Amino acid sequence: MLRIPCAERPDWKQKAETFGFRFHTMHGEPYWDESAYYQFTLQQIERDLEDPTAEIHQMCLEVVEQVVKSEELMRRFAIPEFYWDQIATSWYEREPSLYSRIDLAYNGTGPAKFYENNADTPTSLYETGFWQWLWLEEQVDRGKVNRQADQFNALQELLINRFSQLKTQMPDHQLHFACCKDTDEDRGTVQYLQDCAEQAGIPGAFVYVEDIGISDKGRFTDLNDTPISWMFKLYPWEFMQREDYGKHVASSHCRMIEPIWKSIISNKALLPMLWRLFPDHPNLLPAFFEDDNAASELGEYVRKPIFSREGANISVHKGNEIVIEGDGPYGAEGHVLQAWHPLPRYEDNYTLIGSWLVNDQPAGISIREDKGPITQDLSRFLPHIIL
What we know:
Layout: E1 2-5, H1 12-18, E2 25-26, E3 29-30, E4 36-40, H2 42-67, H3 71-76, H4 84-92, E5 99-105, E6 113-118, H5 125-141, H6 155-169, E7 175-179, H7 184-199, E8 204-208, E9 213-214, E10 220-221, E11 230-233, H8 237-240, E12 255-257, H9 262-265, H10 270-277, E13 287-289, E14 300-305, E15 315-318, E16 321-325, E17 335-339, E18 345-346, E19 349-358, E20 361-370, E21 380-382, E22 384-386
Parallel strand pairs: 4-22, 7-8, 7-11, 11-12
Antiparallel strand pairs: 1-4, 2-3, 5-6, 5-19, 9-10, 13-17, 14-15, 14-17, 15-16, 18-19, 19-20, 20-21
């Protein structure tokens, strides 16, 4: 695994605007960064990333099977009791999933270490599935990247195929896509997914989350008062479960993507449960609920709120000293502790690998860099190759 400097395409920003990639720069800072790329061998991809991704995913599904059977664990996961039966029904009926992303620490040698599962609302889809592939094609054509180079990236193809499968379960239904207002990255992600769905023959419509209404019959509706029977929502289940309109989900006759059972594995309480079920697994880090007696075994650890996103409210502890601490709105729901395993560092960059799945199948990787050891929402995205 190498980090290789590379000349940028001279026209990439203009091309990004043309292709609708308008969040390549955010708050004046670069988000997309093609001044370098990461190079992997095929063995590193297949043995150390792809195969463990599939295995970890199946382990996460085993956690769901355990949690839906236990009121104690539902409480541990800070899931409101109102939704327990709904989550269990969603799981036992195997309501279909679309995609997810697991985050891994990996430096090219040894087992990749699992950090967490972004199973509900992961972003950076467009830049993974389309934009970094376009970068590879154009850099090969320009002679800047070896002509034999490939990329671990079947994401777009698998998304379209998955939408084709989902269409058979919801024939003749329009699929609404929703995200919050004033979020360019979320809007770009949702637009990309809508494009993939339409390539699979599914008619789509867009509505902002803030504009979704509830009819007198308890149905979700868009601004045209059209009932929403099928919806992809880039909006976290843990938010919905604490808002008034979330209580209408079960009676709304609306099929959701992602399904509500995903609220279990997008929850960081997943981490101690994985360690409990699969202790000493080579891809896992020791993890405990904060009040577990065994948590005292951790000398250096990361304290994570159960619902934290984009590195918010995460702190790194070494003994009794807090050496890194992030701000944010999370923490009231409780915390888990995970053994400290720092990201690999390339020059001044800490590097995180996001490994994607579509349904149950590994689909590709994305790479994020940051000057600090905690990956955040503005951490840079870099392309990769296999050679």
